[in-house]
Amino acid sequence: MAFAAGVGQGPLPLLARERVELLLTVGQGLLAVAVLVTLRLQRRDAVLMLVLFVLQLLMPSVVIRAALTLAYLALAVDVFASERWAIPTLARSLRAGTEPAPP
Prior knowledge:
The protein is mostly helical. Helix content is 73%, strand content 0%.
């Protein structure tokens, strides 16, 4: 949006590798939110994210990064599904945090 507002043209052109990197970052962020949806970080979740991150660093192939992106997204959906009871509570607390304090 900032690119379109500044230049007035279409979206920023990205190469295939850059698109995979962007999706990989989105997948990592989504998994991080899913893991923290209960507001408790468990050791197994932290180890899982560390292992996936190290794999990404050790294997810079675009194909492997695309596979890791799918793994991040699948794990995030799985965690959200298994912890779906905590989502409304988290949403309420986030909404309460953005409301202005009463005078």
